[in-house]
Every structure is written in C-alpha cells, then in structure tokens.
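The data are quoted verbatim for reference:
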Amino acid sequence: MASQKVTACCKALIEKKWTIAFVESASAGKLNYEFSTVFDSGKILIGGMVCYHTSMKEDLLHIPQGTIEKHTAESAIVTKLMAQNFHLHVKSDVCVALTGLTTPGGSESETKPVGTIFIHIIFPDKEIATRLLFKGAPEEIIDGATDTVADLILEETGK
C-alpha cells in the first residue's frame, strides 16, 4: 500500500493531468510499484525501468563510457544522465531517476556513506536534483527516498 505522501502525489498528478515515468537503480522498481498501487494510477503512470547494474546504465541508457568509472554509478551526474536519456525515449511530463547506496559496498566512502540517495526529476519546464542521506535498513532508506520523491513532485504541482 502506498504511503500517504505517494497517494497525495498521485492525486496531484491526476489533477494536473501530468504523466510520470521512473528510471531506478537503488530503489529497484519500488517507485513504480508504490505509484501503481494508488487508485487511478493508470491515468498517470507510464512505467519505468530498473537499471541496477552498470552495464544496463551504459548499454540501455547510453551513459557515456567512462562516466560511471570516473563518477561512480551512484552519483549526481549519472542520475541526471539516467533521467535525461530515459526521458528521450519514454515520453512523460515527469521523469524521476534515483540511484544510491542502500547496503554496504559499491561506491561507499566516508563522503558517500550507506543511505546516500541521488534523485533527479525532470518536469515540463525545469529539472531538479538532490542528494540526501537516510538512516536505517535498506527498506527504510528506500521508503524515505520514495516519500521524498513524492514531496518534491508535490512542491512542483503546488499541492
């Protein structure tokens, strides 16, 4: 069942007649799932893609060779490119990309600990990007990120 924030976000998108698509890494499809559980989600949800492994980001989303090696798969630039490149092929009013670290390993460091999440959202007239740090178990990190995505979209819809 979707959180109250996701439900409110979907209702606001329905009111504005805006569609939404997701390209996810760390959340592994959770954003798509959460938004799909809201009544009338078929009016707004286009769908999405889970690109967890580097090869999918490079092969399917055309992240330039060397970008992930230089910046890591969990970075602001890779998240931005995921959103922009996915949005070129999947037309929606809103396109959300999310990467990050929910478990130890990967590109974890002192400056990028577990719980670091990158979000990049394309709206009809602008783009926003944010880097956040969540605490807790992997599911708590993703739940927090999901609610943050909903909050960011709600702000843009004026709700």
